[in-house]
Amino acid sequence: MFADRLIYRINDMNNPTVLGLDPQIEFVPDSIRRKNPSDALAISEFNRKLLFTLHDIVPAVKFQSAYYEMLGPEGAVVLKESIQFAKSLGMIVILDGKRNDIGSTARAYARAYLSPDGYDADALTVNAYLGTDGIQPFLELCEKYEKGIFILVKTSNPSSGEFQDLRLDSGERIYERMADMVKGWGTSLVGEYGYSSVGAVVGATYPDELKALRERMKKTPFLIPGYGAQGGGAADVMHGFDEKGNGSIVNSSRGLMCAWKNERYKNRFLQEDFCEAARHEAVEMRNALSAAIGR
Predict the structure, then answer these.
(1) Is 35 noted as a catalytic residue in this protein?
(2) Do 179 and 222 form a contact (C-beta atoms < 8 A)?
(3) Which domains does the chain have, with CATH numbers?
């Protein structure tokens, strides 16, 4: 099952970090941009260098679909090839598409991103606003192909509370009701480690809610964005983990891709040293997380 493969890789590397590859062309060094005839090809090389540099210490990668879609058809090719390359290195691949619809359209989305004849990601982020009939096609492919999904529950953006924190007549907040729905959808997909292949997206920028949701969703793995550039730190994410140090993966995108810009590395790394800087930051992140969660 997806959840077992993910936890095995995390434990094997003692690192719950996810490399977020959300590349803008401005992040790519000039030397790579000059020798490639298009932005898409430059980003492809940028991705491959980062993946190769980090694959032995970072167990998973998350591709944000929007950054590839904006490049048009060539971007779709780069996304597919980057996914294949990451998988060839043994990394768990999460595609951040936040897709959702109903009926045949939901089935088309599920097949596009999770099936072997599509992008073939190991997991996909999903928006469950349309309810159960918008989630069912994804659940079916999770079971058929041993894939996973991460459903938006409490997101990291500042305005998330405009809807997610509203109270229902029952007194619970919308994100709490969503948490219970996610927990229910995942009951038939629980693996040997005790976690489901149906996960939740819970932002690092809301540590109190993260702690409460871990208590509420004991068998649900969390994908935690918001670490690093968005302001979250190891102390903010520690409550997403269980007593064994399992249960969450923590994404860092700009914090790793653009580590050379970090003020701590001023005068140490140049743009051309982006891989070396990313590896150094990945080790620092791993160590910080390990200390916080007691791994």
Answers:
(1) no
(2) no
(3) 2-293 (3.20.20.70)
